[in-house]
Design goal:
The protein has about 650 residues and is an alpha/beta fold. Among the domains are: about 270-425, Alpha-Beta Complex (Flavocytochrome C3, Chain A, domain 1); about 520-635, Methane Monooxygenase Hydroxylase, Chain G, domain 1, CATH 1.20.58. It is about 40% helix and about 15% strand. The chain is built from 17 helices and 20 strands. Helix 3 (about 45-60) runs parallel beside helix 6 and helix 3 packs parallel to helix 12 (about 465-485). The longest helix has 27 residues, at about 385-410. It comes from Dyadobacter endophyticus. InterPro entries: FAD-dep_OxRdtase_2_FAD-bd, FAD/NAD-bd_sf, Fum_R/Succ_DH_flav-like_C_sf, Fum_Rdtase/Succ_DH_flav-like_C, SdhA/FrdA/AprA, Succ_DH/Fum_Rdt_flav_su, Succ_DH/fumarate_Rdtase_cat_sf.
């Protein structure tokens, strides 16, 4: 694995505050008449894809949009709960563009590119204005102003929200813009289509091979540029908070066609998820980080304490985040909160039948809000029962759908007993390497939102995923794509009869036929479950060199087993979810190997990448800035063979320091 550095991030010159504004003022433009002759393919129609497709079509480009769901409304963006960040300073609590920029860099443990993060912070305010204009029903204060709440890793309130269904409301806003353009004929929508390869001609990305998931037919689609907006790869762990259909196939096919993969080992473990209940599960459920605004996290002070949470008195509770991190308390970043929960459970203080859970308790918030309501109504002799009733009503207004969801899944009423939570795989900070323009190492191939690596370093702050997806789609790609397409206006329509399309389609067909021919004894689901166990045990919340080396060998063996023993039912020429699953699992297996290689190569702990050999005496992550202050960008060279390229990270506007939330 030789290393080299031939990556050009194309970061504009000038001060950090002026880079984006100067860039927008000088980037090449495409005139309106020429835009009508340029075709853009958008793969994925979640927040990044829907906003990009709608905006590019509004500008006049011809757009084809693809999603494997039956409707763009089913994109996994819908599952985001707690909110979206923006530096509006509505609370007058000291927020600013610079503070959002700083918090994001620090939260990512100084492993993100400064220029991209500052741009994200700059456009964050525009996102809120755009979404309000689109009709997104953000929560509002009594007087009508938009409401804000806190999220982890910050000391200001900058998170805008719509109860506990922010992602759904934002997606409906982007979807309405998308559908408007579909109705006007500027976007051609392909539902139930999955991209199975990208097509490069003369070194430029010129289209995709897609499979109609209903008929099984393979289709060729040409375009002057391709945007991959296909989300993250958390399902490599099998159990995650991602929708079960979420996969890495589109990004992985691009990787194997020349797009470098950035920081694949940077995985986020979310601290507030409903604990695993048994072997039968195939998905985990997220409980929004917004609950950490008002919920207090604790475990009993006594080991193996089997009393119900409500029966444990206050002085026998260990509010361990408040104890260890007094400055941020329950709102430390996700990687820190997750490791702290794991440490308490590993030490024998876990709760519930599995002992792999901690409490998230709203009793104090209920009382506080209840007393506030009593004061508002000038009631000075309210009973304890009335205070609890009023407090529960306030909590219900803020978090009601989350509480209902918890009760439906666990059978426990969180208004009466503390929630039980445990960390679970959630977001992936790694993804396709992109430059400042969001272009991969393949000219004409772009990656937006969670599918790229660009904005979050080694750990994403809560409520920043929605911010990045919409920033990329609404406010970044409409400018940056012009820099490339301005020189493509003489290219003419892309012909799908080109030999590159014929060859790519034949290769996709051969892979499908191979999967169907094997007729082994093991289902794709079982291989996925086996991969997930290897990844969680040896490349999960904590990693070490020995475990990673073992994982690499185990995954390579799993890959050999898969291609000799997988059993795919049915045929290729109709709706066949088993075939779709097998295709995706094969890609996950290859990705899993690269994730372990990347984790083994990075001999430090940073953010969500925690190597047990590199930690402080207090168990905190210990970075090695001298040797590892770079983005790992991996080039695919063939089966089990990658070459590492490094993008050195330079910090000119932030003082590098060991992260401290104490």
């Amino acid at each position: 694995m030789a290393t080299s550095s031939r990556l050009d991030a194309k970061i504009p010159q000038g001060s950090i505050e002026s880079k984006w504004s100067k860039y927008r003022s000088s980037v090449p433009l495409v005139n309106p008449a020429n835009k009508r002759n340029l075709e853009i393919i958008v793969v994925g129609t979640g927040l990044a894809g829907a906003s990009a497709a709608a905006t590019l079509a509004e500008l006049g480009y011809k757009v084809k949009a693809f999603c494997f769901q039956d409707s763009p409304r089913r994109a996994h963006s819908i599952a985001a709960q707690g909110g979206i960040n923006a530096a509006k300073n509505y609370q007058n609590d000291g927020d600013s563009v610079y503070r959002l920029f700083y918090d994001t860099i620090k939260g990512g443990d100084y492993r993100a590119r400064e220029a991209n993060v500052h741009r994200l912070a700059e456009v964050s305010g525009n996102i809120i204005d755009q979404c309000v204009a689109a009709g997104v029903p953000f929560a509002r204060e009594y007087g009508g102003l938009l409401s804000n709440r806190s999220f982890g890793g910050t000391q200001v309130q900058r998170t805008f929200y719509a109860a506990g269904q922010t992602g759904q409301q934002l997606l409906l806003g982007a979807y309405s813009g998308l559908q408007r353009q579909v109705g006007m004929g500027t976007i051609k929508m392909y539902n139930r289509h999955e991209m199975l390869d990208v097509v490069n001609i003369d070194g430029k990305c010129r289209g995709i091979i897609a499979r109609n998931l209903i008929t099984g037919e393979l289709e060729r689609h040409g375009g002057h540029a391709v945007l991959l907006c296909t989300g993250g790869y958390g399902n490599v762990f099998y159990l995650s908070t991602n929708a079960m259909g979420s996969n890495v196939t589109a990004a992985w096919k691009a990787h194997k066609r020349g797009a470098f993969f950035g920081n694949p080992c940077f995985t986020q473990i979310h601290p507030t998820c409903i604990p695993v209940s048994g072997e039968h599960q195939s998905k985990l459920t997220l409980m929004s980080e917004s609950l950490r605004n008002d919920g207090r996290i604790w475990v009993p002070k006594k080991k193996d304490d089997n009393r119900p949470g409500n029966a444990i008195p206050e002085d026998e509770r260990d509010y361990y985040l408040e104890r260890r991190y007094p400055a941020f308390g329950n709102l430390v970043p996700r990687d820190i909160a997750s490791r702290a929960a794991k440490e308490r459970c590993d030490a024998g203080y876990g709760v519930g039948t599995s002992k792999l859970a901690v409490y998230l308790d709203f009793a104090a918030a209920v009382e506080r809000y209840g007393r506030g309501e009593a004061n508002k109504n000038n009631i000075h002799n309210a009973s304890d029962a009335d205070i609890v009733t009023w407090g529960k009503a306030v909590v219900k207004e803020k978090y009601g759908n989350l509480f209902d969801m918890y009760k439906q899944i666990t059978g426990e009423d969180p208004y009466e007993v503390p929630m039980r939570i445990y960390p679970a795989v959630h977001y992936t900070m790694g993804g396709l390497w992109v430059d400042y323009n969001l272009m991969t190492t393949v000219p004409g191939l772009y990656s937006l939102g969670e599918a790229n690596f660009s904005d979050h370093g080694a750990n994403r702050l809560g409520a920043s995923a929605l911010m990045q997806g919409l920033a990329d789609g609404y406010f970044v790609i409409p400018y940056t794509i012009g820099a490339y397409l301005a020189s493509e206006i003489r290219t003419g329509k892309i012909s799908t009869d080109h030999e590159a399309f014929v060859k790519a389609e034949a290769e996709v067909r051969e892979r499908i036929e191979t999967l169907l021919r094997i007729q082994g004894k093991t289902s794709p689901e079982l291989f996925h479950r086996r991969l997930g166990k290897i990844m969680w045990d040896k490349c999960g919340m904590a990693r070490n060199a020995q475990g990673l080396k073992e994982a690499i060998e185990e995954i390579r063996q799993l890959r050999r087993d898969f291609w000799s023993d997988v059993k795919v039912m049915g045929t290729a020429n109709y709706f066949n979810p088993e075939l779709d699953k097998a295709n995706r699992v094969a890609d996950f297996i290859e990705l899993g190997e690269l994730m372990c290689l990347d984790a083994l190569d990075r001999n430090e702990s940073c953010g969500g990448h925690f190597r047990e050999e590199y930690q402080t005496e207090e168990g905190e992550a210990m970075r090695d800035d001298e040797n590892y202050m770079y983005v790992s960008a991996w080039e695919h060279k063939g089966p089990e063979n990658w070459e590492l390229h490094k993008e050195e990270l330079v910090y000119e506007n932030i003082k590098i320091a060991q992260r401290s939330y104490k």
